[in-house]
């Protein structure tokens, strides 16, 4: 079997510094566990714009299509806020998602016991929380045509975006959610606004169809997305797997991540169809953003990006055992009390640096 | 001056029983404060469908256009879940909003001190919370064309909805937000997804334009809606007025309402342009829904609907003094420990009924 390949795209802000720690972890798996990777590195987002005038070059896009998995840090920052829409850092990320057809975005919202008190929610509401949000990632209002800003010829303008979902797009992400549920709590809650949007009606009907025809043994419920936002705040532990569209998934998964008090800890996987070698197209990235306010200061928490590599071990490289090893190491480090600044209350002593945290994880492996 | 007129639409589920209490309050203001209203009552939602086969008749629509303010209970329920989209109870409410052109939906998210412990969030995160969400209510993806479900002629279907915002639509709701901010904390935060949607770019630019040209003295910030969902969970007190579009406003205002622990307490006002008599077109309704699980049992909390009438006193009838009197009465009742079932922890003694609560408010007036 050929050596598996990884493309690393550190991106902007804290992306490069957290990725340095992930590379240490990758090297450790090569040296100690005989798990070698061919690693490439390239630019994305603002960094690619600075070098090439585009947030993602065709060359980088081609490389991403050719590897077994892509690992991304973060994109964006205020330096790029005034750029034209077409060359914003985010467009690089969206192009990767779209052209690799990464339709299932897996966002675990997990509350690490050592961090439960760090949540703005009461301990008993979040302790032990472990839900999985499956967000559709390649369609909906993010990508639908027509779109744009047009002049109305009377001095005004009209901003237009289109939500468009097909039967196939809904069914394939629903399948991903049911498959995950089978390995977890066996429950899926689907969220849309079928009371207001026809695309929500289709969403509900097609998810129900997949359930009735292919996964009748999994428990399925439906909830309006506004009620879903409420219930996530009120009693998040009622959920196991949530499946929802691109836009609702963006808001709901961020809210869910924040509930846990562990924002700097949360990874994500974006998966597409299987490639010739049987592995799914895949991109892994932390849920947090580029955090420009602390970039370059060695303050960032590398855990989310390290745990994103753990997801790669599980979903791309079929090494759930090694993924669990890495996840346990991160939990051990937390239990030891190692804390980057984001994991500390206001007066909590002196924080661990980005590299302290990375080193501690390696020591715990 | 002619007697001001009110159209009462109790609607479905707990709507009728909470509205009974509001009528007691209205009668009290007539008898004791010389504030008389001509009150009409009619059907909306599932109740209108049952009687007339449509969730809102043209006659009711015309009445709503002719009165000074509309007070609505709630619409919807599982009995109507399988109805066609066009006659769903929600369509009655959406028609009212659209034809009355109620573009500014004001949703205060306020944490009543006596209820702070009832929130799933820690007391210090929510105690004293008092934010105002201004949601655009007559445009965006709720109403944009084209929309529908179409067959793709290959056995599949496509669900389509369109988000469309014009310069004028954005500016008028932005003005409503800035006006409110001037009477409150003087700060507006506008939320969109300008990194992903062109309609979000237009939103950001037009809100900024209204600020720079008409309200430079108000502090304006912009936030992506996903980050907004996070920040509402993390530290909601950072906000004063939030202005956002119809769909984001639906999710964000529900999440904000749930934060307070006071869902059964929260009112809303939906305002349009001034009528000939200078009063804005207006509809008032509680944030909570029709709660079919407890309907008809005398368990519902009438406070949100009573406080919606207080908003009517303030925004439609220019009686901020009487609105404050009514709001204080509700707070007094809470401080006295009167609690409907929704305001009690699991083992909390025996709850007040819907009419107990209404009577207590009147006694406190
Ligand atoms: C950066 C941005 C384009 C992106 C999104 O909106 O999808 C982000 O918020 C996310 O959730 O990954
Ligand atoms: C009932 C429904 C149509 C409505 C909406 O989506 O606007 C409700 O959720 C609300 O927020 O008032």
UniProtKB/TrEMBL annotation, chains A, B:
<dbReference type="InterPro" id="IPR019818">
    <property type="entry name" value="IsoCit/isopropylmalate_DH_CS"/>
</dbReference>
<keyword id="KW-0560">Oxidoreductase</keyword>
<protein>
    <recommendedName>
        <fullName>3-isopropylmalate dehydrogenase</fullName>
        <ecNumber>1.1.1.85</ecNumber>
    </recommendedName>
</protein>
<keyword id="KW-0520">NAD</keyword>
<feature type="binding site">
    <location>
        <position position="135"/>
    </location>
    <ligand>
        <name>substrate</name>
    </ligand>
</feature>
<feature type="domain" description="Isopropylmalate dehydrogenase-like">
    <location>
        <begin position="5"/>
        <end position="361"/>
    </location>
</feature>
<comment type="pathway">
    <text>Amino-acid biosynthesis; L-leucine biosynthesis; L-leucine from 3-methyl-2-oxobutanoate: step 3/4.</text>
</comment>
<keyword id="KW-0464">Manganese</keyword>
<feature type="binding site">
    <location>
        <position position="107"/>
    </location>
    <ligand>
        <name>substrate</name>
    </ligand>
</feature>
<dbReference type="InterPro" id="IPR024084">
    <property type="entry name" value="IsoPropMal-DH-like_dom"/>
</dbReference>
<dbReference type="GO" id="GO:0003862">
    <property type="term" value="F:3-isopropylmalate dehydrogenase activity"/>
</dbReference>
<dbReference type="GO" id="GO:0005829">
    <property type="term" value="C:cytosol"/>
</dbReference>
<keyword id="KW-0460">Magnesium</keyword>
<feature type="binding site">
    <location>
        <position position="254"/>
    </location>
    <ligand>
        <name>Mg(2+)</name>
    </ligand>
</feature>
<feature type="site" description="Important for catalysis">
    <location>
        <position position="193"/>
    </location>
</feature>
<feature type="binding site">
    <location>
        <begin position="289"/>
        <end position="301"/>
    </location>
    <ligand>
        <name>NAD(+)</name>
    </ligand>
</feature>
<dbReference type="Pfam" id="PF00180">
    <property type="entry name" value="Iso_dh"/>
</dbReference>
<feature type="binding site">
    <location>
        <position position="226"/>
    </location>
    <ligand>
        <name>Mg(2+)</name>
    </ligand>
</feature>
<feature type="binding site">
    <location>
        <position position="97"/>
    </location>
    <ligand>
        <name>substrate</name>
    </ligand>
</feature>
<comment type="function">
    <text>Catalyzes the oxidation of 3-carboxy-2-hydroxy-4-methylpentanoate (3-isopropylmalate) to 3-carboxy-4-methyl-2-oxopentanoate. The product decarboxylates to 4-methyl-2 oxopentanoate.</text>
</comment>
<comment type="similarity">
    <text>Belongs to the isocitrate and isopropylmalate dehydrogenases family. LeuB type 1 subfamily.</text>
</comment>
<keyword id="KW-0479">Metal-binding</keyword>
<dbReference type="InterPro" id="IPR004429">
    <property type="entry name" value="Isopropylmalate_DH"/>
</dbReference>
<dbReference type="GO" id="GO:0009098">
    <property type="term" value="P:L-leucine biosynthetic process"/>
</dbReference>
<keyword id="KW-0100">Branched-chain amino acid biosynthesis</keyword>
<keyword id="KW-0432">Leucine biosynthesis</keyword>
<dbReference type="GO" id="GO:0051287">
    <property type="term" value="F:NAD binding"/>
</dbReference>
<feature type="binding site">
    <location>
        <position position="226"/>
    </location>
    <ligand>
        <name>substrate</name>
    </ligand>
</feature>
<feature type="binding site">
    <location>
        <position position="250"/>
    </location>
    <ligand>
        <name>Mg(2+)</name>
    </ligand>
</feature>
<dbReference type="GO" id="GO:0000287">
    <property type="term" value="F:magnesium ion binding"/>
</dbReference>
<comment type="subunit">
    <text>Homodimer.</text>
</comment>
<keyword id="KW-0963">Cytoplasm</keyword>
<feature type="binding site">
    <location>
        <begin position="77"/>
        <end position="90"/>
    </location>
    <ligand>
        <name>NAD(+)</name>
    </ligand>
</feature>
<keyword id="KW-0028">Amino-acid biosynthesis</keyword>
<feature type="site" description="Important for catalysis">
    <location>
        <position position="142"/>
    </location>
</feature>
């Amino acid at each position: 079997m050929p050596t598996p390949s990884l493309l690393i795209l550190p991106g902007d802000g804290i992306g490069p510094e957290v990725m340095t720690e992930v590379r240490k972890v990758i090297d450790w798996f090569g040296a100690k566990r005989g798990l070698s990777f061919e690693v490439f590195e390239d630019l994305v987002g603002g960094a690619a714009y600075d070098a090439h005038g585009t947030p993602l070059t065709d060359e980088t896009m081609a490389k991403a299509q050719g590897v077994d998995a892509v690992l991304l840090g973060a994109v964006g920052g205020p330096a790029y806020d005034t750029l034209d829409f077409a060359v914003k850092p985010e467009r690089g990320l969206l192009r990767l998602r779209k052209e690799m057809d990464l339709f299932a975005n897996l966002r675990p919202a997990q509350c690490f016991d050592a961090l439960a008190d760090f949540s703005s929610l009461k301990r008993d509401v979040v302790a032990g929380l472990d839900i999985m949000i499956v967000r559709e990632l390649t369609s909906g209002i993010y990508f639908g045509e027509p779109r744009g800003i047009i002049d109305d010829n009377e001095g005004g303008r009209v901003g237009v975006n289109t939500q468009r979902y097909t039967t196939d797009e809904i069914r394939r992400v629903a399948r991903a959610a049911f498959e995950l549920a089978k390995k977890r709590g066996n429950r899926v809650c689907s969220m849309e606004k079928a009371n207001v949007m026809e695309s929500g009606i289709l969403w509900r009907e097609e998810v129900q169809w997949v359930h009735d025809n292919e996964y009748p043994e999994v428990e399925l419920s439906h909830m309006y997305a506004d009620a879903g936002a409420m219930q996530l705040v009120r009693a998040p532990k009622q959920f196991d797997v949530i499946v929802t569209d691109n836009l609702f998934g963006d808001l709901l998964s961020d809210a869910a991540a924040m509930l846990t008090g562990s924002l700097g800890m949360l990874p994500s996987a974006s998966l597409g169809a299987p490639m010739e070698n049987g592995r799914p197209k895949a991109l892994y990235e932390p849920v947090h953003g580029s955090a420009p306010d602390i970039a370059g200061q060695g303050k960032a928490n590398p855990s989310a990006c390290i745990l994103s590599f753990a997801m790669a071990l599980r979903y791309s490289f079929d090494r759930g055992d090694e993924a669990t090893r890495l996840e346990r190491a991160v939990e051990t480090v937390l239990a030891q009390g190692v804390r980057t600044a984001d994991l500390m209350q206001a007066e909590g002593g002196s924080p661990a640096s980005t590299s302290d945290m990375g080193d501690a994880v390696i020591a715990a492996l």
